[in-house]
Amino acid sequence: MNTTQQAPDATEYRRILLVEDEPTIAGVVRDYLVQAGFQVVLAGDGFTALRLAAERRPDLVLLDRMLPGLDGVEVCRRLRAAHRVPVIMLTALGTEDDRILGLEAGADDYVTKPFSPRELVLRVRSVLRRSIPEFSPEPSIEVGGFDLSPAARTVTRHGRPLALTAREFDLLAFMLRRPRQVFSREELMKAVWGWDYGDLSTVTVHVRRLREKIEDDPTRPAILKTVWGVGYRLDPSDEEETAGADL
């Protein structure tokens, strides 16, 4: 008899706040999440979602784009202002502009309706795994004024803590481990998001958001640079050399 025990999934029993005003969709998604081992808290509008997020402290929020009273984009912005909880946006609007709007509001990921509930569960697990601290011997990364701890999932720049979303953290960690290497958006999507294909604007928006948090002037990036026609490169020492030249 095989007595090997499977290691527990770190995402099990995590609390999901599902914000969906369509009862049929909410019921189906809730059932799949519960079967997958999650706790589920339901909200049918934006104001209720914000209240429950403060009271129940969910590990992840599944947020419908179109909500009564307060739409999902505004809910996402307010969540981001108060919490670091990962957000996956559910949207029936399939345009690129709408997806970018959600990502710029702070969403970590998005799923377009209609969607497979099984695929949604996989997306939830993927985002959660990246947001849950890993207790591993992986060393901290100290490069160009950044001090990033993979285990604690914290990062500072010149001693100042940076409030990053799960995807922003993973993107910065990936680039800090490989300074001065150029990566295309396709390569970053596969390495950071784990997707072999997808909407490349997801990468573009996250780079823009990350620049707003690590650059002195995000409109003239000196750290996370664009290599035109190729992709992006992280040059963490450039600002150090510039600062030294002024002394």
TrEMBL record:
Domain annotation Response regulatory: ranges: 15-128
Keywords: DNA-binding, Phosphoprotein, Transcription, Transcription regulation
SMART domains: REC, Trans_reg_C
Positions carrying 4-aspartylphosphate: 64
Residues of the OmpR/PhoB-type domain: 138-236
Highest taxon of the lineage: Bacteria
The entry's DNA-binding region: 138-236
Gene3D superfamilies named among the record's database cross-references: 3.40.50.2300, 6.10.250.690, Winged helix-like DNA-binding domain superfamily/Winged helix DNA-binding domain
Classification via PROSITE patterns: OMPR_PHOB, RESPONSE_REGULATORY
Keyword hit for Phosphoprotein: yes
PANTHER family assigned to the protein according to its UniProt record, in alphabetical order: DNA-BINDING DUAL TRANSCRIPTIONAL REGULATOR OMPR, REGULATOR OF RPOS
Protein name according to UniProt: Response regulator transcription factor
Organism: Arthrobacter humicola
